[in-house]
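Quick one:
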Amino acid sequence: MDTFFISHGSPRLLIKEMAIKYFLKSWKADHFPANPKVILVISAHWETPEPVVNHINGPNSTIHDFTNFPKHMYEIQYPAPGAPDLAARVKQLLQNAGFEAEEDRTRGLDHGAWVPLLLMYPEADIPVCQLSVQPNKDGTHHYNVERHWLLSGRRVS
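Output:
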C-alpha cells in the first residue's frame, strides 16, 4: 500500500500561479504514474469528536466550504465515486483498535480533499473516502489513528 502526505488544498491553488499547483498537476506524469485503486483523504476541514469516515455509495458531493472567492469557484464539482468498501474497512479497523469510529453516509468531499485531487486526478474517476480529524485530541491520538490504519491495512491488503 503506497502512502503519501499531500498538503490540504487551498482553493487559491485553482486560481493562482503557485509551485505546489504545478507539482500536483504533474503528480501522475512525473511522480506516481499508476492510478491508485482507491484514495483515503484525512482532511483538517472535517472536525468530529471521534473518527468518522464518509461512506458514500454513489458519487461524492463537492463541499464548497470557503468564502469570498470568485463565483465560478462555487460551481466546480469533483464527483469522484465513493469508496464504500474502504470506508467500511477503515471503520472496522479503527473500531478493532479501540477507537469509537463512525460512518457518515451523506458527507461529501471538502475543499481540503477535492482541490488537490482535482489537480492530481482531474477525471474524478478514482473512488475516494474521507476521514475526519479530532481537534479535541492530541497529536498522539492522530498518530495512533493513522498508525493502526497503516499497519492493519498492510496486513489485510
